[in-house]
Amino acid sequence: EIFYRREADIEGTWKNVSVSGVEGYLSALGVPEPMKSTLVNEKDTSTFKRLPGGLISMTSTSKMSAGEVVFKYGEQFSFEQPGMGTMSGVISCNKETLIMAMKVGSKTISGTMKVTGDFMVSEFEVDNMPCSRVKYIAVRA
Q1: What's 85's DSSP letter?
Q2: What pLDDT tens digit does each residue of the chain (141 aa) get?
């Protein structure tokens, strides 16, 4: 018997074309100036690649990027986030939506990344504070 699981089509390169709420998000994370001002106006790209064994590689052109982050759905992973320390978390996939929970220091980041065709809408929040909610809209590059 063959079993297929539908997952979000995240593979490829995604370019952020719109963002709202990034200042509140970065403030809630405690990102200092001048890094905060640099990140507010950033239009970065992210690339996702599937690897053997169900692993997924993610890289970003963001100045806050941790380089390559490799994860597997449903399993805890961690990486060094420049200027913030060690981040750990888990990502799961439900059809076209990735659901994420991350921990950095005493802060908890929760979020979703929904893929529809060539669009990805991502929403993240720090410690369930509505004022920290950020929304990104990206297109497949």
Answers
A1: E
A2: 766 666 888 999 999 999 999 999 999 999 888 889 888 888 899 999 999 999 999 999 998 888 999 999 999 999 998 878 899 999 999 889 999 999 999 999 999 999 999 999 999 999 999 999 999 999 999
The number of beta carbons lying within 10 Å of the beta carbon of residue 46 is 22
CA distances from 29 to 10, 65, 88 (A): 26, 15, 15
**What does the alpha-carbon distance between residue 43 and residue 24 come to, in Å, rounded to a whole number?**
17
Tokens at residue 138, please? 């990206």
Strand order in the sheet with 55-60: 69-72, 55-60, 45-50, 12-20, 134-140, 119-126, 107-116, 97-104, 85-94, 77-81
Q: What is the pTM of this model?
A: 0.88
Q: Exposure of 124 by Cβ count < 10 A (0-12 exposed, 13-18 middle, 19+ buried)?
A: buried
